[in-house]
């Protein structure tokens, strides 16, 4: 079997078309790239103990594979790197406004950064959203300084208070 030729190795379950060996090799290489990309991304964010919910979509365009990282919209914003990585500077907060990205050598505008931090702490949320947030996460998880502890003390009998 030559890798240069298209060798049919199976039938697709979706529409019954034949799957070529070249397609399977591209899929395997994509899975390796996906795993490396996610490992590097998660390794960097694990230092901050934030679980990133991201998916890497890959598409083939003009015989080039384009990987798109989709990060789920949640309250753990802003994301930033703690060490420089492939031209992306550490501790810079990047954003995308309409169709313009933040330059690699700069950080986002101060109003954008402020909006992201407000989102993280729930300051920008409506009263109903904040109430739901507080019900989902108890106060002692959100604010550790409010954790109360009670030592073992002997309480007087109930008749003492009447």
In terms of DSSP E residues, the strand content is: 15-25%
Secondary-structure element order, N to C: EEHEEEEHHH
Helix content: 25-40%
Instruction: Name the poorly predicted regions.
Output: 1-13, 15-25
Shape: elongated
Contiguous helical run count:
4
Strand arrangement across the biggest beta sheet: 1-2
Task: Estimate nothing, just give the exact number of structural domains.
Answer: 2
Total beta strands: 6
The whole-angstrom Rg is 26 Å
Average residue pLDDT: 68
Going by helix content, strand content and strand pairing, the class is: alpha+beta
For the biggest sheet, the summary is:
2 strands, antiparallel
Distance linking N and C termini? 93 Å
Q: How would you summarize the topology of this molecule?
A:
Layout: E1 8-11, E2 18-20, H1 21-46, E3 54-61, E4 64-71, E5 96-97, E6 100-101, H2 110-121, H3 127-136, H4 139-142
Antiparallel strand pairs: 1-2, 3-4, 5-6
How would you portray this structure in words?
By secondary structure, the chain is an alpha+beta fold. It folds into 2 domains: 72 residues, no CATH class; 78 residues, no CATH class. It is 32% helix and 17% strand. The protein has 4 helices and 6 strands; from the N terminus they run E-E-H-E-E-E-E-H-H-H. The strands form 3 sheets. A two-stranded antiparallel sheet has the order 1-2. The longest helix has 26 residues. It is elongated, with a radius of gyration of 26 Å. The termini are far apart.
Q: Summed up, what is this model?
A:
The protein is α+β, with helices and mostly antiparallel strands. The chain is built from 4 helices and 6 strands. It is 32% helix and 17% strand.
């Amino acid at each position: 079997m030559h890798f240069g030729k298209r060798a049919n190795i199976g039938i697709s379950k979706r529409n019954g078309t034949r799957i070529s060996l070249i397609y399977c090799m591209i899929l395997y290489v994509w899975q390796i790239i996906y795993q490396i990309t996610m490992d590097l991304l998660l390794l960097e964010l694990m230092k901050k103990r934030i679980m990133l919910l991201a998916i890497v979509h890959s598409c083939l365009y003009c015989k080039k594979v384009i990987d798109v990282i989709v990060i789920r919209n949640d309250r753990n914003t802003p994301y930033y790197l703690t060490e420089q990585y492939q031209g992306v500077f550490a501790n810079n907060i990047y954003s995308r406004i309409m169709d313009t990205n933040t330059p690699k050598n700069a950080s986002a505008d101060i109003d954008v950064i402020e909006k992201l931090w407000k989102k993280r702490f729930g300051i920008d949320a409506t009263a109903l959203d904040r109430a739901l947030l507080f019900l989902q996460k108890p106060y002692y998880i959100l604010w550790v300084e409010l954790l109360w502890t009670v030592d073992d003390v002997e309480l007087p009998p109930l008749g003492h208070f009447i």
